[in-house]
Amino acid sequence: MGSIEENARIERLYLEKFHQERGAKIVPFAGYAMPVHYSSGIIAEHLHTRKAAALFDITHMGQALLKGLDPAKALESLAPSNFVELAPWQMCYTVLTNNKGGILDDFMVTNFGRSLFLIVNGALKKADFSYIKRNVNADVELETLDERAFFALQGPLSEQVLSRVFPEVKEIFFLSSLELVFRDAICFVSRSGYSGEDGFEISVPFDVAHEFAEIVEAQPEVIMAGLGARDSLRLEAGLCLYGNDINQETTPIEAGLQWVVGKERVKTGGFPGANVIIDQVRQGPSRQRVGIRICGRAIARQNTEIESETGQKIGFVTSGGFCPSMKSPLAMGYVQSRFAGDNTRVRLLVRGKKIPGIIQPLPFIKHRYVRSSEKI
Amino acid sequence: MSLSYTKDHEWVSISQSIATIGISDFAQEQLGEVVFVELPDLERNVTKGESVAVVESVKAASEVYSPVDGIITECNESLIEEPKRLNLDPIGNGWILKIALSNPEGLSGLMDETRYKEYIQGIV
Fold first, then answer.
1. ipTM score here?
2. Predicted local distance difference test score (pLDDT) of residue A317
3. CATH number of the domain residue B88 falls in
4. In angstroms, rounded to a whole number, what is the distance separating the alpha carbons of residues A137 and A339?
5. Which residues in chain A show pLDDT less than 70?
6. A1:B54 CB<8 A
7. Domain-embedded: residue A55
8. Is the domain of A213 the same as that of A292?
9. Rounded Cα–Cα distance for residues A88 and A69 (Å)
10. Do B38 and A298 touch (CB under 8 A)?
11. What is the domain range of residue A363?
């Protein structure tokens, strides 16, 4: 057998003991020792999230406030979204771009009124925060929130569960947030996540994090879930993983994330790589991120080559794995745009064999977000 | 029938010049839930150390290396429909393949159960 993980120098989660007590298998990820699954296993955790609710500790992610004079305007100099138009307590997904239009990181931004709340990927948080500090104007300042845990509660029963702690969560919808108090501590709660299901993400100060996690985990609908299920859930939901599906070489347009580019900003530009990105908005990109359904059971993992039916190399896989809800392997990757149409037949080169695949629209599984129009 | 183990966490059990090969309980636990097993063609000549099968878990793909020289005589086809067997019963129902030894005298580099247990203690 090859490849059993090696240990590198890594940081510990604030609640590591809590996870160990619940049977967590802990592996290094993004510089942290992270639970990859608990005693029930990845498949059970995945299926439970789609059916009920699961709690994920995602404290490895970076949290920060961008404060000062007009932080929205300042952030627009580094990212293509229209943060100035973001209503108070609304949240959006966006990307930091480089001069080639590539993606430095993807992240969430919430308008907290006088500041912006940023949530960035764990592996890149130091780099992102120092990049932002160096590149925004002197009127704004970035304050990292290093003393907070971060949880995701995901699944259709999340509202029912979380409303026992915070009754107010029934009043918010997908991509909106609230500041709420738990044991005298200020928590940030948003209706958002990375599973394609309804759910919430909750930032909790360290001193009450253990109690918060204990209460939520003790609810009968909830099990703990780790990074393994987080990855298979997001893959079925067609969501990008930074470092796999998007990186400094892929633009948001190639990645199918054109909606992160504000309408006005296509005209005005003013962010790194604007010329490349605006050109791709107008002309269409030469390659695109697509979903691929694999025929059979072989798994086409990252970097698997994709060929056309006639044997021409047309792209490569960026994420691939077994998806428990679909009971089949799935993949995402980039192909030349003329092969990106739904139902195009392709072949994936897995260990020298050509495995047939079919281009599928993303997401593979319909998102079940609770949006304002669906709730009164 | 006693089992021998490789440093790569395969087990091998030899009976009448036929080696039955699988992965150890430690290996299946490290891999996590197995969702696919790629089996080799029958009658293939293999040499020690050559990749003969691939076990895919939800987490990763891992190759199975032949601990012996010989010819592949049989594969556990039931793993195709039920890859879970590798987790549930790795050294029983979850066996992977059989190899007819070309040189039954030439076995080397294998550990017995006790030494293998010490070896994995050193890993975790």
1. 0.79
2. 98
3. 2.40.50.100
4. 43
5. 1-8, 373-376
6. no
7. yes
8. no
9. 16
10. yes
11. 286-376
Of A204, A219, A236, at which residue does a domain stop? A236
Closest CA to A365 of A237, A279, A245: A237
Question: What whole-number distance in Å separates Cα of residue A65 and Cα of residue A114?
Answer: 10
Structure confidence at residue A1 (pLDDT): 53
User: Same domain for A195 and A57?
Assistant: yes
A36 — contact with chain B (CB < 8 Å)?
A: yes
Residue at A184 is within a domain: yes
pLDDT of residue A35: 97
Same-domain status, A56 and A157: yes
pLDDT at residue B33 greater than cutoff 50: yes
Give the rounded distance of the alpha carbon of A283 from its chain centre.
28
Element (H, E) at A357: strand A353-360
CA pair distance A318, A291, nearest whole angstrom = 10
Interface-testing mutation among B24, B59, B87, with chain A (most A C-beta atoms within 10 A): B59
The answer, yes or no, to whether residue B60 has pLDDT greater than 50, is: yes
Q: Tell me, what CATH number does A171's domain have?
A: 3.30.1360.120
Inter-chain CB proximity B64 and A1 less than 8 Å: yes
**The predicted structure's pLDDT at residue B107:** 80
Same domain, residue pair A217 and A318: no
Q: Which residues of A touch B78 (CB under 8 A)?
A: none
All residues of chain B having their beta carbon less than 8 Å from the beta carbon of residue A301 are 61
Q: With an 8 Å Cβ cutoff, is A102 touching chain B?
A: no
Both A304 and A376 in one domain: the answer is yes
Q: Does A10 touch chain B (CB under 8 A)?
A: no
The answer to whether residues A372 and A291 belong to one domain is yes
Each residue's pLDDT tens digit, A187-243:
999 999 999 999 999 999 999 999 999 999 999 999 999 999 999 999 999 999 999
Query: What is the number of domains present in chain B?
Result: 1
**What is the least distance, in Å, from the CA of A121 to any CA of chain B?**
20
Q: What angle do CA A155, A161, A163 make, to 5 degrees?
A: 120
Residue A123: inside a domain: no
Determine the residue type at B57: S
What is the number of structural domains in chain A?
2
Tell me what the pLDDT averaged over chain B comes to: 93
* Chain A residue closest in CA terms to B57: A322
Q: Is residue A69 part of a domain?
A: no
Domain of B12 in residue numbering reads as 4-116
3-state secondary structure of B117: helix
Q: Is residue B95 part of a domain?
A: yes
Q: Residue B1: what pLDDT?
A: 60
Q: Is the Cβ of A42 closer than 8 Å to some Cβ of chain B?
A: yes
Give the alpha-carbon dihedral of A271, A362, A243, A339, to 10 degrees: -90
Instruction: Give every CB contact of residue A263 below 8 A, 6+ residues apart in sequence.
Output: A82
CATH of residue A348's domain is: 2.40.30.110
pLDDT value of residue B105:
74
Q: What is the pLDDT of residue A3?
A: 44
